[in-house]
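We emphasize that the prediction below concerns an isolated chain of 498 residues; any contacts that depend on oligomerization or on bound cofactors are therefore not represented. The input was used exactly as deposited, without trimming of termini.
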Amino acid sequence: MQPDPVICNRARLARDKRFDGRFFTAVKTTGIFCRPICPARPPLEKNVEYFNTAAEATAAGYRPCLRCRPDAAPGSAAWGLVSTTVRRALALMRAEREAQSIEQLAERLGISSRYLRKLFAEHIGLSPLQVWQTERALFAFGLLRDTHLPVADVAFASGFNSLRRFNGVFKSIYHRTPSEVRRESVKCAKQPDSGNGVQIYLSYRPPFDWPALLAFFAARALPGVEQVITAEDPEQGEYLRSFELHGQRGVLRVAHEPEKCRLRVSVFGSEGCGAVLYPLREKLRRLFDLDADIEEIREHLQADPLLQQVLRATPGVRLPGAWDPFEYTVRAILGQQISVAAATTIAGRVARGYGEAFSGPDGEQLLFPSAEQLRDADFSDIGVTRTRAATLRSFVAATLAGEVDFDEPELEAFCKQMTALPGIGDWTAHYTAMRGLSMPDAFPASDLGILIALGDGEKKAAPKQAQARAESWRPWRAYGALLLWQSLKLKTKESSST
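Result of the prediction step, given as a token string:
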């Protein structure tokens, strides 16, 4: 779908932040493309054309604006409309540091390379290589401007194993070399990285309810692995966690910069973690749901009177994701039929008993164990029933055998895989899909909180009633579930204040 020129024109003239990343304005007279919030004087409408993505603009021969920096724009909502196979391919491309060949991608997706090329041409109008090169060049620009990483390290972090190839691709997009961009960077000189940390920035489209996200994560923070630092001003709270990604260990710290509509991420590691910055960024964008098209979701869900009330009070709702699908599924299994606090305590025992410790910038950190590390675990020492321990062992074995697909599967297919395992029901499957895989249409219909929220005050709703009510919320049922949980909190606040 091509951007609507009437809407785009209004949005860019108003510099509306809600449209940032949803389209890009290319100026025919200068050969430059910009974000709709660009502070430069807006060009005449007859001199512009609009593109859904930065990759499309660069493929058309335009170069990125150095003032508004398209590299810092939120992810494109347009790619949420492409086919499931293309979305899966994009996710696989972004999860790895290095470029994958079209043949490798096609093999992982279970289709032919010829068919994958056809899908990209049909849905995006670009080849996978064009998309990869544009995204990596934009990412490299941000590192050149915002960090002190040497140019060679920037090239490697951006997925290029050859400095010559990196220079060639970068210059073809920006019409200047990486070294020239580094010399021009004033911000880099003013804001040096502290210690061995690297700072990256993640933009979003407002509204964005950072305090609500932090509160959600704080109630479920895994001791030794995660931490939420609260502050008197809720917007100043921070999120921390340890990680291991592609063999590199480190700690990340996330803070909010609401005036700039972005998150500031400080990454600390023994080697600066430059090699994993790109896949790390993609994980964080999913964790905090930064690419959600909140305006579209809100417009769709507010047709339900109950959700409309909650949306008025919490307009910036986001779907809290998970750092790792395997880690989260283990936690979801532990959370069956017990409280959030109890499940978090038991998950902490799993991390202490089977995970590895390492020295972080603020002391000892824990890494949540991988499926390989849990291969021989019997879970008899973490305080769960024998049935629950058997379910955990079955899930670990199925993961190691490749029977559980975490690579962007379809919702129904994923739930079918999960419920085929002993001890895993529909609630666990949908809740894992909702948070572990950030599937926007997942809906744990039998969840007690959902049933109470949809009840009449004296009697809770039945799962079938919840399922039927949520049909009109598709494809955003997961956000509907979040709003229902939020409605219970709002009722509690109202009753305590009266």
